[in-house]
Design brief:
alpha+beta; ATP12-like fold; 2 domains; 52% helix; globular; disordered N terminus
Length: 252
Amino acid sequence: MNDASPDTPKAPARPGFTERTPLPKRFYKEARAAATEDGRFRIELDGRPVRTPGRNLVAVASQPLAAALAVEWQAQVEVIDPMTMPMTRLANSAIDGVAPAMEEVGAEIVRYAGSDLLCYRVDTPAQLVALHAELWDPLLAWARERFGATFMLSEGVVHVAQPPRTLEALAAALPDDPLRLAALNLMTTLSGSALLAFAVAHGRLSPEEAWRAAHADEEVQEQLWGTDAEAQERRAKRFRDFEAASRAYALI
């Protein structure tokens, strides 16, 4: 079948599905990664190429990444649930949204660095002060050594401007691959920290370590006041996307 056919399967979009939206039924037997003539790898469902919601071919430069995407499709059972396909959603975003807007997406990451989570500290409670120092200070030192980026700290929520050279250094370190940039952007927005995203991308932190650092405040709150099951469930769902972004970055 021609891959421009109107019934070519589409990869699920990122948001847009709610509990009330009927999920499409699985209609294929096999999902696999297949090489293309230009040296990339596309996803095929029973031999038919998958396209993004924007009608672009889902094709990536990395065979391991394409194989991981195919695994997500193969893992679908009776219906196709986009929320269980975080790497596919990331690929859609990279192909449809990030590729034509690399400069804007990179600028968003740099803006996060300009008010990075790790730069805003508290003076109480003592447990949180200590945890911030334990988890965050080594990362600021790493950023200074790795990128030449020195960050200024603030107490409370008062904004502190970061040195232009610091932001320029991080801008220069942004990846030029749309999928990697999409993954870095997603890790940044989910964690609230460009520094944590860069640390995962460069192997300084595991996804689990970065996620803990991003939620130091919640960790101490739960120690003091107990856990909130709903909040933990929401964080777990967000971590699934964060971890998928880190895996995609590594597989490219």
